[in-house]
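Write out this protein's structure.
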Amino acid sequence: MNKIAKIFVVLLFCLANTSHSYAQEKEFGVWAGTVVYLGDLNPNVSFKNARQAFGTFFRYNLNNRMALRAGINYGFLQAKDANAVRYPYLQHRNLSFKSQLFEGMLAYEINFFPYSNVPNSKERNWTPYVFGGASLFYYSPSVRYDGTNFKLEAIGTEGQKDPNVIKKERGYQSYSFAIAYGGGIKYALNQNWAINVEVSSRATFTDFIDDVSGKYPAADELYYLYGDVNIAELLSDRSTEVGPKIGYEGKQRGTSKDKDRFMFLGVTLTYTIHDLKCPKVF
């Protein structure tokens, strides 16, 4: 059989076996939903503090069961003690924060069933899935006080910027690692498009997403002037705005044993690029 005849046979084979010749290796997706912070200012999974989030990702399907995923996510974190109606002490503490969140994530994904956008007798067009991976994210807690927005890390509300100690921990980093895990359901709308519903969580290695972790410092450990006002004292203990003072030196301000966390919940739209797999001619 000459070369032209071989090519003709291969093309006929591919056209006759279209559904089995596709390899859906590359997948692009965008998602939108919400993000929820969990920590000292939201000890229970309350969705009162849920805010907007969205992102994009690339998924490389190793086969119909496993995939690797890389994504970039954005969210806005926010919480107020005033919303903790079941905890009078937290309401009296009266702290709050907000923060932009930028995240990069790598994950390994497993489908419960063999999955394909072009289903056949051995593959389904839907499946539950789970994933686990690593995350690196940026955050910067701030608070609005008397009409002005203040970056809390620079202020040192728990005495991190103590001017009386030369060698002292000077605050906390604005980025941290996290363990990412979650799951969802994916459903193929047609040969290229699919929709996913997913919930995921981040177990972080920082307790300062909300700027609250340890104990109230001594008054002389707080020093951050805004004009003629030592704003560090005012933002470290805000209980006097709603009642008697509770922020005495050494008293618990937060819980350093439990690190902060955040959760994403969203709907994803993905587009699959199919590679046509045909037998080699030569």
